[in-house]
Design brief:
Length: 100
């Protein structure tokens, strides 16, 4: 029995008009209110779980506040972004005004 390859997220366009990177996709997935667990992030991005953890560590080093939330009744930890670095906010705001 062979396992089918994970389906990567469809190619999206970023605010700058270029192709959306895996990092952009990870940020979008972690930006949801409910967050996401490592397994689902890995499947959606087509990465191994240790690669997903390393990418989240890279986001933390870049200034993102990534929080892990463990359910009280057990289960998988969910991760989500609580805040983004100030320079990222400025870039996003500038990109949205350029398109107006």
């Amino acid at each position: 029995m062979t396992k089918s390859a994970p389906k990567p997220i469809t190619k999206l366009k970023s605010a700058t008009g270029s192709r959306t990177t895996k990092k952009d996709q990870l940020i979008k997935l972690l930006g949801s209110k409910s967050g996401a667990d490592i397994k689902s992030l890995s499947e959606k991005l087509g990465w191994q779980q240790h690669t997903t953890r390393a990418a989240m560590s890279g986001l933390r080093k870049a200034g993102y506040e990534v929080a892990a939330e463990k359910p009280a009744k057990g289960g998988k930890s969910k991760f989500r972004i609580l805040s983004v670095p100030a320079e990222q906010l400025a870039t996003t705001a500038a990109a949205s005004t350029d398109g107006a």
